[in-house]
Amino acid sequence: MKRGVARSRRALLAAFALVAVAPTVRSANLERWAGKPIAPLIELLAIDGRPLTLQQLRGKVVVVNFWATWCEPCVTEIPSLQRLHADLHPQGLTVLMVNYQEGPARIDKFIKAMNMTLPVVRDTDGAVARSWGARIFPASYLIDRAGKIRYAQAGAVDWTSASVLGIIRSLLAA
């Protein structure tokens, strides 16, 4: 009898551990940004070699997303970022994907496998991620049309949830 109980406990603990570490996408609201409002610079090369800066996107609402191909929550989150960009780009939203320290061949292979159409820039040495304070991946920042950080989130988010869309639509309407 004791063996059966011990086995059941181990099975329950193993199931709990899987749920606790499985990549999840939260639909919760984004966190209001309490740091300095002006977004740090982003001056990086896109995957196709063209320079891209955050300044070029001034006048748009921008989601800056720090990610990596090895990051399971990042991979889980990308489809909702794709849908968000496709649905709200005509209203002035841009999703800018900042890859953390990976080579162009690896990123390109990943983009093709995921059918990504989002703009991707390479943070080859991690300096941009550090300047933004991105320590957990994915890390996302929502920037208003004036270039001010308004919201941030560490960890994956469902970018198509009603609460998140409400926040983004209010920035688009402003």
- The separation of the N and C termini measures 66 Å
* CATH homologous superfamily caption: Glutaredoxin
Radius of gyration: 18 Å
Please give the CATH architecture: 3-Layer(aba) Sandwich
Count of beta strands: 8
Q: What is the name of the CATH class? A: Alpha Beta
Judged by helices, strands and strand pairing, the structural class is alpha+beta
Counting structural domains, the number is 1
Number of helices: 5
What does this structure look like?
This protein has one domain: Glutaredoxin (3-Layer(aba) Sandwich), CATH 3.40.30.10. The radius of gyration is 18 Å and the shape is globular. The model is unreliable at 5-24 (pLDDT under 50). The chain has 174 residues and is α+β, with helices and mostly antiparallel strands. β2 and β3 form a beta hairpin. Helix content is 38%, strand content 22%.
Q: Mind sketching the topology for me?
A:
Elements: H1 2-21, E1 31-32, E2 43-46, E3 51-53, E4 61-67, H2 72-88, E5 93-100, H3 104-114, E6 120-123, H4 127-132, E7 139-143, E8 149-154, H5 162-173
Parallel strand pairs: 4-5, 5-6
Antiparallel strand pairs: 1-8, 2-3, 2-6, 4-7, 7-8
